[in-house]
Amino acid sequence: TPTDKSKEAMTRGVEMLVSAYSHLNSAEMAGCTPPDCAKELAANVRSEAHTAAARTAASSAVVLLKNDGDLLPLTATADSSRTLAVSGPAAFAGGSEASEDYYSGVNEGHIPRKGYTTPSEAITSKAISLGYKVTNDIKGADVCIVIGGAASHEEHWMLDGESLTAIDAAAATCPKTVVLLQINGAVLTPWKGKVTSIMSMFHAGEETGNAWALTLF
């Protein structure tokens, strides 16, 4: 028999579901009977408020795991020759409509979408505004930002091979290397002693790139 406390919890759950549905612009769904709702379900109902909430959630999910010499956050520079290199597979990857990606994982967690602002785009824009020269070439860079992770559950406990290769290359070349992780769970970091700073977030959705730009600087 449900207790008063469990009834209260169920009532609250229903209220949250109804509230979420009402925010999906239910007027556009009027007359739609599943499964004949392809047009309605594909409709873009985002607003500036939705984007701001997603950005706040993603940036709040970033965890600083290592920061030797208090390198982070990076600050503005008056030296126009100071170079920031951006590398790693997740830096340039967009979202996927068909398979796993670095933004929302795979299977039941995957949200099919393209057109994300990539971490490289967001970080480059912010870095240039603060006086940095930005490149994709790690050779000669003052600071290397490597963005990697694991898109697939098959790589549980490990970053994918491209990410590991990018980290090793930057650590062997750059005087200061920052690793940004987009992962779907806990991962091993046997390379942590080679790098200066590490930040991590679990798959954080469409505002991942902008969240990195907000927390890196």
UniProtKB/TrEMBL annotation:
Its EC number is 3.2.1.21. Pfam families: Glyco_hydro_3_C. The keyword Glycosyltransferase does not apply. It catalyses: Hydrolysis of terminal, non-reducing beta-D-glucosyl residues with release of beta-D-glucose. Residues 62-217 form the Glycoside hydrolase family 3 C-terminal domain. It is an enzyme of class 3 (hydrolase). Keywords: Glycosidase, Hydrolase. It comes from the Eukaryota. GO terms for biological process: glucan catabolic process. InterPro entries: Cellulose_deg_GH3, Glyco_hydro_3_C, Glyco_hydro_3_C_sf. GO terms for molecular function: beta-glucosidase activity. PANTHER family: BETA-GLUCOSIDASE (PTHR42715). Belongs to the glycosyl hydrolase 3 family. This is beta-glucosidase.
